[in-house]
Amino acid sequence: xxxxxxxxxxxxxxxxxxxxxxxxxxxxxxxxxxxxxxxxxxxxxxxxxxxxxxxxxxxxxxxxxxxxxxxxxxxxxxxxxxxxxxxxxxxxxxxxxxxxxxxxxxxxxxxxxxxxxxxxxxxxxxxxxxxxxxxxxxxxxxxxxxxxxxxxxxxxxxxxxxxxxxxxxxxxxxxxxxxxxxxxxxxxxxxxxxxxxxxxxxxxxxxxxxxxxxxxxxxxxxxxxxxxxxxxxxxxxxxxxxxxxxxxxxxxxxxxxxxxxxxxxxxxxxxxxxxxxxxxxxxxxxxxxxxxxxxxxxxxxxxxxxxxxxxxxxxxxxxxxxxxxxxxxxxxxxxxxxxxxxxxxxxxxxxxxxxxxxxxxxxxxxxxxxxx
Length: 372
Ligand SMILES: Nc1ncnc2c1ncn2[C@@H]1O[C@H](COP(=O)(O)OP(=O)(O)OP(=O)(O)O)[C@@H](O)[C@H]1O
Ligand SMILES: [Mg+2]
Hints:
372 residues; alpha+beta; 22% helix; disordered N terminus; binds adenosine-5'-triphosphate
């Protein structure tokens, strides 16, 4: 009887608008204290029930952005709106934020039942706890019931995480905010926890922001991914957009595995000319001699035929995907390509490579901006 005893109804879902948010922190240098932006004019809109993942290198401002959206810290400029109302004008108890952190952040001297039921207890609705616990167990397929009488220190990392999520769900959140919730778990447990969370978010579509370092996790859970660098939101989109249409070199090389191959070159007679490859048509308005970096994904380099000779330096099989990643070099240049798992590519071999022209991306080598 799925769907009958819904923990929350759709009408309380929330639209979040992040509007030119800025936050700086003082940072001491050798000679003075400077104010360094951690979140720099970030704007984004989270539709009702949508999950956006925030992806970016360490220190780029992901957690700070999440804490601003949670109202845990005040912005220097800009605002956060929940359903058109400025977060600062919403009393804390009405914000309805479910936060899940890396360590689960459970209260150590309470058992699991008390931890999950805390918000219901606050609202004098503790009688609803058993029903909610069993519903969450049912959807995720995890035996939360078995854990109810234990204290957090008697739980494994994975169990603690699940209790943290159950607790956040049990409070009827308008908004779910996750900060690398599974980063303490090993690879297998992480995949499992991700699947459980995905089921929960499907059953209870709560508007969510999900901070992670892990692209696979972001792709599995989120409708869209926002890429951050040094406090700025560089680009937001689905997998296809970020993978095929990155707006600059940073997004192109940060997103997708293996890392996009890059080749330095210049414009000669409306064509891109590099060291190994060349003769690719470029945008007509690019001036002769402009330095342009060509970006090509591993799967867009073809093997065989009349191509550029390349010496195989390594071949790494990926059995699950039935392919191997092959590293090759030609003089000072080296790149990675995808080859079938047929054993015909050996280290020391010389192959020929050609580029799939339609998949070639061009970037201004100085600014990093996409130019074709
Ligand atoms: N309370 C604080 N005081 C001073 N500086 C801070 C504070 N919080 C964050 N910062 C700085 O702001 C920047 C962004 O930090 P933040 O924690 O948001 O990064 P992050 O993207 O979450 O990194 P990670 O992936 O390592 O968790 C960093 O340079 C950090 O040192
Ligand atoms: Mg962080």
